[in-house]
């Protein structure tokens, strides 16, 4: 049975990275659209799939999984020999380096992006006022972290070595949100960070996804 992706067509957040792994790995899937504005993510039926009432989640022939980064890892492990290779290497040290980079994304990168997103998007859309001081502080902290990325990326092409891996790919989760808010965190960063960001954010599969939205493919090409 073809894998079911419960998500939105709109490329954003966790859906963005899961859809990108599906595209990079050329995995057929059916898109079951969950509409957030009408709270389809909070129905009893969806809460069985995702107890936090969120998207994305998958149903792979009865195996249900939520949390976008966990889904990406699962898909890479399940389909090692198709599509883009090396996203989640199996060698002990290679994988440890990917997990190191993935932890950095989760603890040193995305929390600051989410603070900015909360202030500039979520609060205004709930009638609350943006606290510009919080935005400025979050961006200042983020830039200090990206200065460290600059050092790392001066030594290797990507975060976990010289191959594109999930450690890099997970950073794309933030990209649509920042772009939609008109927040450019990249262009004044160091040359290595700029080179890396340009490289990962212009991958053909990512550009196609951004242009077309999440588009299911139920057969292998
Ligand atoms: N940590 C989760 C976050 C999922 C998440 O925040 N999903 C958002 C959409 S991008 C959502 O479902 N929001 C609705 C809600 O939380 O009620 C993941 O990476 O999958």
UniProtKB/TrEMBL annotation:
<dbReference type="InterPro" id="IPR004045">
    <property type="entry name" value="Glutathione_S-Trfase_N"/>
</dbReference>
<dbReference type="InterPro" id="IPR036249">
    <property type="entry name" value="Thioredoxin-like_sf"/>
</dbReference>
<dbReference type="Pfam" id="PF13409">
    <property type="entry name" value="GST_N_2"/>
</dbReference>
<dbReference type="InterPro" id="IPR040079">
    <property type="entry name" value="Glutathione_S-Trfase"/>
</dbReference>
<dbReference type="InterPro" id="IPR004046">
    <property type="entry name" value="GST_C"/>
</dbReference>
<protein>
    <recommendedName>
        <fullName>glutathione transferase</fullName>
        <ecNumber>2.5.1.18</ecNumber>
    </recommendedName>
</protein>
<feature type="domain" description="GST N-terminal">
    <location>
        <begin position="1"/>
        <end position="83"/>
    </location>
</feature>
<dbReference type="Pfam" id="PF00043">
    <property type="entry name" value="GST_C"/>
</dbReference>
<dbReference type="GO" id="GO:0009636">
    <property type="term" value="P:response to toxic substance"/>
</dbReference>
<dbReference type="GO" id="GO:0004364">
    <property type="term" value="F:glutathione transferase activity"/>
</dbReference>
<dbReference type="GO" id="GO:0005737">
    <property type="term" value="C:cytoplasm"/>
</dbReference>
<dbReference type="GO" id="GO:0043295">
    <property type="term" value="F:glutathione binding"/>
</dbReference>
<comment type="similarity">
    <text>Belongs to the GST superfamily. Phi family.</text>
</comment>
<dbReference type="InterPro" id="IPR036282">
    <property type="entry name" value="Glutathione-S-Trfase_C_sf"/>
</dbReference>
<dbReference type="InterPro" id="IPR010987">
    <property type="entry name" value="Glutathione-S-Trfase_C-like"/>
</dbReference>
<feature type="domain" description="GST C-terminal">
    <location>
        <begin position="91"/>
        <end position="217"/>
    </location>
</feature>
<keyword id="KW-0808">Transferase</keyword>
<dbReference type="GO" id="GO:0006749">
    <property type="term" value="P:glutathione metabolic process"/>
</dbReference>
